[in-house]
Each structure stands twice: as C-alpha cells, then as structure tokens.
Amino acid sequence: MELSNLSFALKSHSHQSTSAHAQLTLPSQAASGRSTARVPRVVLFGGQDSPSEARLARCWHKSCEALLPNHRLEAVAWPAGGAARKRSSGAGAPRAPHAHRKQTQARSKFWSALERPVARGLTAAMAYLDAHMQLDAQGLPHGLPSRLVHHFSRFSIEAMYNREGRGDALVAHATDALRRAPVDLLVAHSFGGTLALRAAWELWMRGERTRRFTLITLGTGSGPTVAHSPMLSVLPRTSRGQIARLPNLHAWHHFWSPTDVLVGASMLPREFDGVSLHRVDTGPLSPRAHALSSYLAATEVVERVRSALSR
User: Fold this and answer.
1) Cβ-contact 76, 189 below 8 angstroms
2) Which of 79, 92, 114, 259 meets the CB 3.0–4.6 Å disulfide criterion with 289?
3) Is the distance from CB of 213 to CB of 184 less than 8 angstroms?
4) How far is CA 239 from CA 35, 75, 244, 266, 271, in A?
5) What's the pLDDT at 209?
6) Are the CB atoms for 188 and 217 separated by under 8 Å?
7) How many whole angstroms separate alpha carbon 264 and alpha carbon 270?
8) Which of 303, 263, 260, 304 is nearest to 282 (CA)?
9) What pLDDT score does 235 carry?
10) How far apart are CA 158 and CA 95, in angstroms?
C-alpha cells in the first residue's frame, strides 16, 4: 500500500513538473510563432497641384496598391497648394494600362507621326527657358519668357524663393512627415520631389540620421531654376558643383516621360549626383502626361516600387 502511494506521488510530481515546464516554454513558442516582420512605411509627396491627402491615397490605392507587397502608406499634400482647388490637376483619375492602349490605338496616324518631334521641340524649349530664367532675389520674373514660365509654376517658384516664408513652411511640413516614423520608401511627384530632397537633407544636417531609404521621383523638375534656388542652395555639393547624394539613400530613381514637357529630365544628372534615370510612357502629349496617375500606371514605376518594398 505504501509502495503504491509512493508510486502515485512520484507520477503526480513528474506530471506537475512536465506541466510547469510546458507553461514556461509556451510563451517563447508563441513569440517565435508570431511574425515579427515590420511593415514598410511608404510616404507619398504630392506635387504643387496635388489634391487632398485622401485623394492622393486613393490614386495610389487604385493605381498600384494591389500589385505591391504589404506596406503602410502616408500621403502628404501641401497646405498652400492644390488642396483647396475645386478641380484635381495633380493626381487625376487612375489610368489603367489597357485603357491607355486603347487610347493610343485611337490616335490618328498623322498626329502619332508628329507627336514625338513636337514633344522633343517643346521639351527643348522648356529646357532653354529654364536655363535662361531671370528671377530676382524674391523669385519675381524679368522678361516675357521668364514671366511665361513663372505663370505656370508660380507656386513652386515662390516656395523655392521663400516668398512670405512659404518655402520654410513647406519644408517644415515635409520634414515633420518624414520624422514621424522611419521611412522605407519616399515617392514624390513633381515639385514634391524637390521638397522630399530638401526635407531629407534637412533631417540629416540636423543630426537626425534616420534609417536608409529609397527615393523615387516622378516628373520632378531638375533644371537650374530648381538646383540653384535658395531652397536647395544650402545643400552640400560635389567638386563638380552637383548637389551631393544624400548619405542615407539606398538609391534615387527618377522617372520621366518624353510627353511630359513640363520637366527637362535631361538636366537631372547634370545638377544632381547619384540619380538613376528611367524613361517611361505616360500617354499622349497633353497636360495629363504630367499627372501622378499617369506615372503610377507605368509598369516600370510599379516594378521599381515593388523592388524597393521587397528589400
């Protein structure tokens, strides 16, 4: 009887020890079973005519989100920009690739033959005007050609020359957006690319050395008017006079379209160091060729975004 009781006690003790050991190991097993992968953060900067942040986000979602790995998007529009406009000239309705093909097929053969040389001529004219812009210290134009360019880019020029403190306010707004959390991918359209570069450099120069990230700019102006403006004049330069590459960049990819005549993409390597150029098709020669949705519809842009998120 005593042997029986002793045997039962040993078995009970063994069972309790095993149970206690299982309770101790379960939490670590559960922890190892959970996914600890961090969701990449994407920041999307709109251009000078960008709509509200909600509409920027919708443009991203409808254009390319389903084609990308899991990520967290934060869209940034500019308080003094196109957010208060009744019409949206920045993002536009998403343009599906198949719709673009139908549109391309519907163009007349006559215009299709003329479109490329006309686009080249207009781009060359814009590049010439950019290189010969005459602006005073306040960013006010002198001469008819300079007034013409200023008319179409008043918001960005006044910001780059900090008229009434607009440039400082926009840079502060952009810097706050980048500071909120670590950024994995920064996508910027049009003038948003200028603000993205300035804000990222601002954080670096202040000693806020954030994690490395990828910069993708879409249709961002890059001529002398931008590169030598007061907004970018404070940035470090190489021995060749180019704006230096940001130290914490994985890569900088710039996308341009031959029908987007508002920007002279060929100037970008001349003024900026460490940037890779990519030519894409954003549709026929029209103001819509500069729209964010037209760039996001390009397969090459989506592939580059996917690659950056999969890093």
Assistant:
1) no
2) 259
3) yes
4) 47, 35, 9, 20, 12
5) 78
6) yes
7) 11
8) 260
9) 95
10) 31
Q: In what order do the strands lie in the sheet with 185-189?
A: 72-76, 41-45, 185-189, 213-218, 249-256, 276-279
Residue with tokens 């959390």: 181
Q: Which two tokens stand for residue 155?
A: 């918001």
Phi, psi of 56 (to 5 degrees): -60, -45
pLDDT score recorded for residue 83: 35
Alpha-carbon dihedral 287, 288, 293, 296, rounded to 10 degrees: -80
Q: Using 70 as the pLDDT threshold, list the residues of the chain that sit under it.
A: 1-36, 80-113, 122-153, 264-267
Task: State how far the Cα of 210 lies from the Cα of 226, in Å rounded to an integer.
Answer: 25
173: number of Cβ within 10 Å: 16
| Beta-bridge partner residues of 74 | 43
Closest CA to 234 of 130, 162, 146: 162
- What is the C-alpha end-to-end distance of the chain, expressed in Å? 69
The confidence score (pLDDT) of residue 160 equals 84
Per-residue pLDDT, 82: 38
**Residue 8 CB burial class (10 angstroms; 0-12, 13-18, ≥19):** exposed
